[in-house]
Write a structure and sequence with these properties.
The complex is a heterodimer. Chain A is an alpha+beta fold. Chain A contains 11 helices and 20 strands. A 7-stranded antiparallel beta sheet of chain A has the order 2-1-5-4-3-6-7, with helices on both faces. In chain A, α1 packs across α7 and α6 packs across α7. Chain B is globular and about 80 Å long. In chain B, a hairpin with a 2-residue loop joins β30 and β31. In chain B, strands 13, 14, 15, 20, 23, 24, 32, 35 and 36 form a 9-stranded mixed beta sheet that branches. Chain B has a 7-stranded mixed beta sheet with strand order 12-11-4-1-2-3-29. In chain B, strands 6-5-9-10 form a 4-stranded parallel beta sheet, with helices on both faces. By secondary structure, chain B is an alpha/beta fold. Classes of the chains: A alpha+beta, B alpha/beta. At the A-B interface, α1, α6, α7, α10 and β14 of A face α4, α8 and α13 of B.
């Protein structure tokens, strides 16, 4: 393979997915996409192999091959101009709010690629607004299920199907706008890939793609081969399922031999009643994400890089629930705990590569009326937890969770105050929250948020990590767990659990949210004196 | 004879252009002096005087004004050599600049230490004060709290004052700034409402922190430059070109130093706008390829687009600035094996030191310029008119070392580097055009900077562009562009956040007030003709991002200016995003008026580059050595079609032309090449 052609086409494929991502950012309608960037794009091969992806939300991307395979199982012979859509976690999706658009790309009448766009929409029906329903004990209470469907053919869209979908969400305009943006981005990518196919020929481009995947595989194998062989175990524990089950454990057994790594999750606890079960694609994606985090960041995240990786899991367990179980929280939980269990195991194999745990998600959504009587729904993206420490140094403060790793943005406090009846009395780093190892986990945040709604409001929560902090690694301590309370204007103090619906909030009440810090890395006794001093001076510790 | 002088300080060379009252234009250059750019500027002025055949004192005493593009702020940010900054900020919110809204660069790198914040946490001093979004006082700013905060500043060079909702009402910030300036006249003091009076605290605070960080450095540099110019006998005005492409007097540029972060590449865009006005024809895409980076921008209907939210050195600068795409690749970019064994060009660059291997200053890795030399595209003895001698054996040795590791012939590697860098440049042009909804095929690629001429044909072809142009000034084009732009001063006011567009009368009065303010300031700078232009940032009710809407076309006397503004927004949204929502609420978030002072003066005509004598050269093209003709710019009469590839060389640049192209020298000062079909 001519190394120059390979380098040129590799760059071009990357430029295409970046262009698709840019199109999403600029044209999507809902805040969760255009501001918080909860979407991902990729080019996959004819059978679903991941060829190229842009750096968006890590937990999406390892799941996209499953989406292509689900489409092909339903439509074995896609035609040029077809547009596919799915979200069903039991048929190619991860969780219901993530819609996935797939466009097959052809050359000489043969299917060569798919362009894929996955995006989290603001509402997908179900029992509560916003997609997360901690009360759900089955998937039908979580929203509308879309198995792989042909949303359009000959390049045109089926408006009747779009109306069906929009009729099943509380935010039809957002969902329609976002869907249009997704189709637009996928079309843009498909047009660019078609141009490449025309320029280099089908065989030429496919040969280059094979070679690119081969190089990435060799790159990943070189890294893995340098680690010692052996078998390691790690676990991570979820607080609860919101329906009485506590301490739900994810267990990873990692077997490293030569340049291969096998992750066995079959020892994990059984599936549960609540929304912390995982779909199979999401589990596969979380494992791929953990593996990618252990490799060098420069390794291209494509099918080649993941070839050294094998996954074993058990249907009916928390990481791979039977059809019908609720799974909406899975991209966060147990997605994050799957990563954490694997990294915990691998810290004994490659300690320099294992990073301290990143935070767990703990979201709050408030709905009520403002002084003008206008209805509002506000989603918490502030008070992010801290990132984990690593051998490279301290963790990022308030950079978020494993599943997004600094890829989700919280909005402007000024803008939130201007648009919602909220007063952010304080929003700062939370001292002492990061696990204080040789390197300190990033700090979480302290948020004091006064609710000034007109009349009572209601809050829902969804998340985990009130009892279990982000894992410390290689001798570093865990980060402090979340501690959320509602301070009543009347003096009452209510601890918020991580999976509640219908929490009454009175005007003047203050949400006092302390988010978790990241896990520490390495023996605390080895922390440099100068680092301790500057932590104190800067108030990261107190 | 009176001159106007443009000075463009680049990473490797400082380029200067002087235009005389009669339009006669002369160019000169000198090596850049990164430690103190003003030394290179003075050396360049001496060279310019020599080229004009006058003494430096005579040149300076007869110069009307100097316009300067500087990379001092950019370099201070990139190299993290700015001032020690403290920040006074609203109690309870002192981590805004370090939280960065939860975003972290390099998604899959979970083993990286966070960057040091420009203002470390212990120098972010909380002040007990708080405003509401509507400007109401929640917590009053009391003197004891303010005095305690001022006392806590201690050792620092600069202070950024960043209070929540200062966009809605600047009174607390203004009070704090006045008290601090009185108590500590030694400090560079800047407040967020002075820098960017708009909602969104992270963008505003970050921009203000950057202003404090680069302010003292830029002020020192500009002071030194003014001092050296005064010593050399210059008494005229010095203007600095800013990131938005307009120019401002020295003192104002120092006060809003963050506005000079894109001063460097702004001259090139200004030049493209000027060439467009001169009738170069059609839409333009600038392709300014220098030693370490390449700047690309599009000129549509004679105008450059402005954007917000630029990052320099990882720091967010939310001021309006030219929408320039900068690629970390240029003539000095190094070719190397990536960690997975793939051939890469850049992002590492040999820079000015050691420079490409062929500069003979100790570089051993092959750079793009080395490949161009090995392929015969560049002449060892006549690179940039002899400004830099090139060492062919050193380039060949560097090429052979890497080629050996790849298992290919050195010449094939050189040809591969050429191809690869062309493809990267083409991708950069795609980002600057296609991704912004502009079809490059209908545009002309305007190639300038020292290195672009060799790559223009290949890049244009890759994109399906039909024409490219290479100005005679080439490396000096940015300096010339500075002399073709206007003084610009902007006034912005936040209007509304949650609710609609103000009634027509209120809106008209607001814009009239802003226009008065902008005109008054401009009149202090400038006594010539002043124009103004009005715009607004607007969005649909539920959106997060605003778009800029030009309001110059409104009839303000008609009494329905608010409705006209809404219609203008719908239309602009349709143009940008392919849809509009006529039934949705439209919010006018901020109003803006820019005053433009037309500096005027002759466009200039450059006629004096030394041309290589016509001849022939052996180049490696299409996998084989072949002899191609070497021409000067003036050898091309209209309609001449090239039967074979050819090289055009002058003291400013080298151009590689492909067979089948129609080449014409336009007497207004550029080579226009039309790519025939097939």
């Amino acid at each position: 393979m001519d190394p120059v052609t390979l380098a040129v086409l590799d760059n071009r494929l990357r430029a295409i997915v970046e262009e698709m991502g840019e199109a999403m950012l600029r044209t999507s309608y809902s805040q969760i996409l255009n501001s918080s960037r909860d979407f991902s794009v990729a080019i996959c091969g004819a059978e679903g192999d991941l060829v190229s992806q842009a750096d968006h939300i890590p937990v999406h991307v390892g799941a996209l091959p499953s989406a292509v395979q689900a489409v092909l199982a339903q439509f074995p012979a896609p035609r040029p101009g077809d547009i596919f859509l799915l979200n069903d976690p039991y048929d190619g999706g991860s969780h219901l709010p993530d819609l996935t658009i797939l466009l097959p790309v052809f050359a000489d009448g043969e299917r060569c690629f798919f362009t894929v766009v996955r995006a989290h929409v603001s509402d997908i029906g179900g029992g509560t607004h916003g997609g997360y329903n901690p009360a759900a004990t089955d998937i039908w209470s979580e929203g509308v299920r879309i198995p792989p469907i042909r949303l359009g053919e000959d390049g045109g869209l089926r408006d009747d199907l779009i109306r069906l979908l929009c009729a099943n969400t509380r935010l039809p305009r957002d969902v329609r706008g976002d869907l249009m943006a997704m189709v637009g981005a996928a079309r843009t990518g498909a047009a660019r890939v078609e141009a490449l196919l025309a320029q280099h020929g089908r065989d030429g481009l496919l040969a280059v793609v094979d070679a690119i995947l081969g190089l990435s595989e060799a790159h990943a194998r070189r890294i893995v081969a340098a680690w010692p062989d052996g078998i390691w175990q790690g676990e991570a524990v979820l607080d609860d399922d919101g329906h009485g089950r506590e301490n739900i454990t994810i267990r990873a057994t990692c077997t490293k031999r030569g340049s291969d790594l096998t992750i066995d999750l079959s020892g994990s606890d059984d599936e549960v009643a609540g929304i912390v079960n995982s779909s199979r694609p999401n589990m596969l994606s979380a494992v791929a994400m953990a593996f990618a985090y252990l490799l060098d960041p420069e390794v291209s995240k494509n099918a080649g890089a993941f070839r050294p990786l094998s996954v074993i899991a058990r249907e009916g367990s928390i990481v791979w629930a039977h059809e019908g179980k609720p799974v909406t929280l899975c991209t966060s939980h147990p997605g994050n705990e799957i990563v954490e269990a694997i990294i915990r195991a691998m810290q004994h194999c490659c300690p320099e590569r294992a990073m301290g745990g990143w935070g767990r998600r703990f979201r709050v959504a408030i709905q009520g009326r403002s002084a003008t009587g206008r209805k509002f729904v506000w989603h918490l993206f502030h008070a992010r937890p801290g990132g984990g420490a690593s051998a490279a140094g301290d963790g990022f403060n308030t950079a978020g969770e494993w599943h997004s790793a600094g890829g989700l943005k919280f909005g402007s406090v000024e803008q939130a105050e201007a648009r919602f009846p909220l007063l952010f009395e304080a929003h700062e780093f939370r001292a002492n929250s990061g696990g204080l190892g040789q390197y300190r986990g990033g700090t979480g945040a302290e948020l004091r948020l006064r609710v000034e709604s007109h009349g009572p409001a209601l809050a829902n929560t969804a998340g985990d990590g009130v009892r279990h902090g982000s894992a410390g690694m290689v001798g570093g301590p865990d980060g402090m767990p979340h501690a959320y309370t509602l301070l009543g204007a009347d003096g009452a103090v209510r601890e918020l659990r991580s999976k509640e619906v219908g929490v009454p909030v009175q005007p003047g009440d203050v949400l006092h949210l302390l988010s978790s810090g990241g896990g520490g890395w390495g023996d605390p006794g080895k922390r440099a004196e100068v680092a301790k001093q500057s932590d104190l001076r800067d108030g990261y510790t107190a | 004879m009176r001159w106007r002088i443009g000075i463009d300080v680049g990473g490797t060379f400082t380029d200067l252009v002087a235009i005389a009252g009669d339009g006669g234009t002369v160019m000169a250059k000198a090596a850049s002096t990164p430690a103190d750019q003003s030394l290179g500027v003075l050396a360049g002025l001496a060279n310019l005087a020599a080229a004009l055949g006058v003494g430096l004192d005579e040149l300076l005493s007869r110069t009307e004004h100097i316009i300067h593009g500087t990379t001092v702020a950019t370099n201070a940010l990139l190299e993290r050599r700015g001032a020690r900054v403290a920040m006074l900020t609203t109690q309870g919110h002192r981590d805004v600049v370090e939280m960065r809204e939860g975003l972290k660069p390099d998604r899959y790198n979970l083993r990286m230490a966070p960057p040091e914040p420009l203002v470390p946490r212990h120098r972010r001093i909380p002040v007990a004060e708080r405003l509401r979004a509507d400007g109401r006082v929640e917590t009053a700013l009391e003197a004891p709290a303010l005095n305690a905060a001022i006392a806590a500043v201690g050792e620092a060079d600069a202070v950024a004052i960043c209070f929540l909702h200062a966009w809605a009402d600047p009174r607390h910030e203004a009070t704090a700034a006045a008290a601090l300036r009185a108590a500590r006249p030694d400090l560079f003091v800047t407040a967020s409402h002075e820098v960017l009076p708009e909602i969104k605290e992270f963008e505003r605070f970050s921009t203000t922190a950057v202003n404090a960080y680069v302010g003292p450095v830029v002020a020192r540099y500009l002071g030194r430059l003014a001092g050296r110019l005064a010593e050399a006998g210059y008494q005229g005005a010095v203007f600095v070109i800013l990131s938005h492409g307009g120019v401002a007097p020295l003192a104002d540029a120092a006060r809003l130093a963050v506005g000079t972060a894109l001063s460097g590449p702004a001259g090139g865009v200004a030049a493209a706008v000027a060439l467009s006005a001169m009738g170069i024809g059609g839409e333009l895409v600038t392709f300014d390829m220098g030693g370490t980076s390449t700047d690309i921008a599009s000129i549509t209907q004679g105008r450059a687009t402005l954007g917000r939210g630029r990052e320099v050195g990882g720091e967010v600068i939310a001021l309006e600035s030219l929408d320039i795409v900068t690629l970390g690749a240029g003539g000095g970019s190094i070719a190397a094996l990536g960690p997975d064994g793939r051939l890469q060009v850049g992002p590492r660059s040999a820079g000015a030191r050691p420079g490409p291997a062929c500069y003979g200053r100790g570089g051993v890795e092959p750079a793009v310029t080395d490949a161009n030399l090995v392929l015969g595209f560049l002449s060892a003895g006549n690179f940039l008119g002899g400004a830099q001698a090139l060492d062919l054996p050193a380039a060949e040795a560097a090429m052979a070392a890497l080629a050996g590791r790849l298992g290919i012939a050195p010449l094939d590697l050189a040809a591969g580097i050429f191809r690869l860098v062309n493809a990267r440049m083409a991708d950069g042009v795609r980002v600057a055009t296609v991704r912004r909804g502009i079809d490059p095929r209908a545009a002309t690629l305007l190639a300038f900077g020292g290195a672009a001429g060799l790559h223009a044909s290949a890049v244009a072809r890759d994109l399906g562009m039909k024409r490219y142009a290479v100005p005679l000034l080439a490396a000096g084009l940015s300096a010339w562009g500075m002399l073709r732009t206007d003084l610009r001063y902007e006034v912005t006011r936040s209007v509304s956040v949650a609710e609609g567009v103000p009634p027509a009368a209120t809106l008209a009065a607001l814009y009239a007030r802003l226009e008065d303010e902008a005109r008054q300031k401009m009149a202090e700078w400038f006594h010539g003709p002043i124009d103004t232009t009005r715009s607004a940032s607007m969005r649909y009710g539920e959106q997060v991002f605003e778009i800029k809407v030009g309001l110059d076309g409104l009839d303000w006397t008609r009494g329905d200016a608010d409705e006209q503004a809404r219609q203008a927004f719908h239309a602009e949204h349709q143009r940008l995003f392919t849809y509009q929502l006529p039934e949705d609420e439209v919010v006018l978030v901020s109003a803006r008026v820019a005053a433009l002072g037309r500096l005027g003066g002759a466009a200039g005509y450059f006629s004096r580059p030394a041309m290589t004598a016509p001849g022939a050269r052996r180049v490696f093209l299409g996998g084989a050595w072949r002899e191609v003709a070497v021409h000067g710019f003036f050898d091309f009469q209209p309609g001449r079609r090239l039967e074979a590839p050819a090289i055009v060389e002058s003291s400013t640049t080298t151009v590689l032309l492909a067979a089948g192209e129609f080449v014409e020298f336009d007497p207004r000062g550029w080579l226009m090449v039309t790519i025939a079909d097939g």
